[in-house]
Amino acid sequence: MSSRDRILARVRTAVADAPAAPAITRDYLTSHTPDDPVAVLDLLHENLADYRAVVHRTDAAGPLITELLAARGSGSVLVPDGLPREWLSGATAVRIDDTPDSTAAELDAVDSVVTGCALAIAETGTIVLDAGPGQGRRRISLVPDHHICVVRVPDQVVASVPQAMSRLDPRRPLTWISGPSATSDIELDRVEGVHGPRTLEVVLLSG
Hints:
It comes from Streptomyces violascens. The protein has a six-stranded parallel β-sheet with strand order 1-12-7-4-2-3, with helices on both faces. The protein is an alpha/beta fold. The protein has helices spanning 3-14, 37-50, 61-72, 104-108, 161-165; strands at residues 54-58, 76-79, 94-97, 112-115, 119-121, 126-129, 146-153, 157-158, 175-177, 182-184, 190-192, 199-206. The chain contains five helices and twelve strands. The longest helix has 14 residues, at 37-50.
């Protein structure tokens, strides 16, 4: 008998008369937010802003995105496959298609990127991309310094992470974004744009 077998035998003897473990209850709340679409959207807006994202509400994405690109002075914009054409219908920036051959240096030279998303989570102020239509590959949301992300309201808004997990496919490449890229050193000096966009603008698109 090995040392491992002797130890396990002693453990079994010690717990032989122990009562059976109680059943584990898993009646956890799936959300701490009232089941009210207006309240959920307001909470999403609040938490996005708390993470220093710039939040806009609109019922027409195209004119707003055109305005945001112009205000940024963007001469080029990265466009993932499947992005609704009307979102960039008035933009004058040079449109650059997302291709597998694009290098990190080429992506870094782009002024802005516009994407959709898979979901937005109100309680955490998080946007989730899954590389679906209009979202592109993961790196296009990580390399360019300015990211405009459109969230369709209310279809793409959920209150909590458990609600999001039930709607996301874990086999897809999920990118979870909570505000612009940032880090802090031991003295809590915040530096933005270290490993992702320095500026995140979120468009909450109703209708």
